[in-house]
Specification:
Elements: H1 4-50, H2 60-63, H3 67-73, H4 84-103, H5 108-116, H6 120-124, H7 126-205
């Protein structure tokens, strides 16, 4: 019976090792799909943002903003807006800054509600027309901000997919190495079990 110990351990090592190899294959496929997603999303974001023809503010346009917004936009000054981080910075620190300056910090909902509460005569007055123009400006600003932030969100998803792809490939490599070592160890145990069996047979025969 002494040969059963190494033989059982060899079988167990094979089971674990082949399971690891199968998991490695799964991770390789997942890594390939994540890599595709990373490049596809990156290309789409760059293309869709690039066709907008927006240049990040610089010079006087940048200096007119509050200091915190200037600091956020400074790294991208003068460059075409074609990445997720640039889109987010432009939406949150340029468009929003101008919206807040125009409305005194009021939201579209606040301005719109105030305009809708006016009477027909008030809406027709210069103040009412000014309120209507501000309402339209804030609506357009929110729409553009939303589109840019969607682009930034997709860019973030692409970045996450890229990191996940790297993790999948690293995990696959580790599992393949461990699987190879496990199979090699199983073969050694099988040879040891075979050697013990031969010795036992010879002892029995003598």
């Amino acid at each position: 019976m002494p040969e059963e110990g190494p033989a059982m351990r060899a079988s167990f090592d094979k089971l674990i090792s082949w399971t690891g190899v199968l998991l490695a294959a799964f991770l390789l496929v997942a890594g390939g799909m994540l890599t595709y997603a990373y490049f596809y999303i990156g290309d789409e974001v760059e293309t869709q943002l690039g066709i907008q023809g927006i240049t990040m503010p610089e010079g006087a346009a940048l200096q007119s903003l509050p200091p915190a917004d200037q600091d956020a936009l400074e790294p991208y000054a003068g460059s075409p807006m074609d990445t997720g981080p640039e889109a987010r910075a432009y939406a949150d620190h340029y468009i929003l800054a101008h919206m807040n300056a125009a409305s005194g910090g009021k939201t579209y909902e606040e301005v719109s509600s105030a305009y809708l509460a006016m009477s027909s005569e008030q809406k027709a007055s210069p103040e009412g027309q000014k309120q209507a123009a501000l309402r339209t400006t804030l609506f357009q600003g929110n729409t553009l901000r939303g589109l840019l932030l969607y682009g930034a969100a997709f860019a973030t998803m692409g970045t996450i997919a890229g990191y996940a792809a790297i993790g999948a490939f690293v995990g696959a490599a580790i599992l393949l190495v461990l699987g190879f070592l496990g199979l090699r160890h199983a073969r050694r145990l099988e040879r040891a079990a075979g050697g013990q069996s031969t010795v036992a047979d010879q002892a029995t025969a003598s």
